Amino acid sequence: MRSRLSPLARLFGAVATLGLVLAGCSSPGEIKDPTPIAGATTFSKLRIGISFDQPGVGTASEAGEADGVTVGSDAKGFDVDTATYIAKALGVPAESITWVKADPVDRERLIEEGKVDLVLSSYTITEDRKRRVDFAGPYFVAHQDLLVRRNDEELTGPDRLKGRTLCAAANTTSAQNVLNRYQGDVALVQPNTFSECVKRLTTGDVDAVTTDDIILAGFAALPANKGVLRVLNQGFSDEPYGIGMPKGSGQLVTQVNQALTNYIADGSWKASLDRNVGPSGYKIPDPPTPGK
């Protein structure tokens, strides 16, 4: 039997259908091509240091050695998107970027030895580091947190760390914060990378991994770790991420800060975070103001 709809019902039906169509056509934000920075230093290519083992932030496959550093391919993550945007704003296309492995223990050395032009490697701006390198940014503010095994119901926050064994990568603010805050109360293991820390957590060799919440969220979201590890979401520090470069790079700092300002303003910053860390459930914060 064929039903007869009133004109009003047909109108509401059409509106609902249009809404579904529009919803189906909507897409997340896109990373835009940046506006070139006026008067930017001319680079024909850039060597940029990134993490190779931080899911959602910076990952790459090791592709060999060049000029005494490890170079990578298939680079991706929030830091990689940010670096690519900056490079384009400085006139360097993506294909002219060489991705260099920059573990926390090596970042200052790579900059000082001229092995890289920039470092974007979840690199917290600190006064000690500013004595050795210049920073643009911040372009993100993370918070130090704890990654634990899901079945550990006793470790509920930083106030329950006494007598525990923690793991943090060497030469990181995460490790230094633990030493400053919990000296004598916890044992701290410091391998070169956080991926090694996570491995030790899953095998039961340490009680928790501590570093920035955005990094921990990426590790927790890996298929092998789902249902196994969890982030406590008890942030206890501010970690402003900067872009490291050689001392005396004042003009370049200004130019990169302008590129970062545009990156945030045109929606590319949020689009990158939505794409790279949004699926982990990580709550994306408001952006900082580069140069402050």
Oligomer: single chain
Rounded to an integer in angstroms, the radius of gyration calculated over CA atoms is 22 Å
Topology as H/E string? HEEEEHEHEHEEEHEHEHEEHH
Spatial ordering of strands, largest sheet: 2-3-4-5-1-6
Instruction: Count helical runs.
Output: 9
Beta-strand percentage range: 15-25%
Total E-strand runs: 13
Regions with pLDDT < 50 over 5+ consecutive residues? 1-27
Q: Which whole number gives the mean pLDDT?
A: 90
Fraction in helix? 25-40%
Sheet bearing the most strands, described? 6 strands, mixed
The end-to-end span amounts to 70 Å
Q: What is the global morphology?
A: globular
- The assigned structural class equals alpha/beta
Describe the overall structure.
- It is a single chain.
- The N terminus is likely disordered.
- Helix 2 crosses helix 8.
- The protein is built from 9 helices and 13 strands.
- Helix content is 32%, strand content 24%.
- The relative contact order is 0.18.
- The protein is globular, with a radius of gyration of 22 Å.
- The chain is of the alpha/beta class.
